[in-house]
Amino acid sequence: MSEHHGVKPMKTIIASVTERGQVTIPSEVCHVLGLGKRGKVIFQIHGSEVRLTTAPFTLETAYGSVQPLHRSEDFDMLSRVVKEERATKHARSASTA
Questions:
Q1: Is 79 left (phi over 0), alpha (psi -120 to 50) or beta?
Q2: Confidence of residue 44 (pLDDT cuts 50, 70, 90)
Q3: Residue 26 half-sphere exposure, CB side, CA atoms within 13 Å?
Q4: Which of helix, strand or coil describes residue 65?
Q5: Element containing residue 44 per DSSP (H, E)
Q6: Which distant-in-sequence residues (6+ apart) come within 8 Å of 2 by Cβ?
Q7: Which of 32, 67, 36 is nearest to 53 (CA)?
Q8: Is the Cα torsion angle 56, 58, 64, 69 positive or negative in sign?
Q9: In this structure, how many other beta carbons lie within 10 angstroms of the beta carbon of residue 29?
């Protein structure tokens, strides 16, 4: 099928459905839709046809797309530091008593 008056021919991509009813969206389709990780899609059902489109921007779809301003805290390390400081303070007060 050739391109006619600027209209591209329809391309068909086959994907398998898993036992759980899941389908992986092919990378070419993700590229066309502009989908990235954690992207959201909408399934629009009209009779026996289904259209796949991108979901509008939400906080959930934006999650992870922006680098944090500050690095996250290592709470395990902070907890160890606090415990060590408390133990040191307790040892000092016990030795002066």
A1: alpha
A2: very high
A3: 9
A4: coil
A5: strand 41-46
A6: 9
A7: 32
A8: positive
A9: 15
Q: Where are the domains of the chain?
A: 27-70
**Residue length, the chain?**
97
Condensed to tens digits (0 to 9), the pLDDT of residues 45-90 reads 999 999 999 988 767 656 666 677 777 677 788 888 888 888 887 7
pTM for the model stands at: 0.50
> Dihedral sign, CA of 92, 93, 95, 96?
positive
CB 39 within 8 A of CB 54: yes
Instruction: Enumerate residues 6+ apart whose C-beta is below 8 A from 28.
Output: 13
Is 23:16 a contact under the CB 8 Å cutoff? yes
Report the distance separating Cα 56 and Cα 89, nearest Å.
54
Helix, strand, coil in percent for the chain, rounding step 5: 35, 15, 50
pLDDT at position 4, please?
64
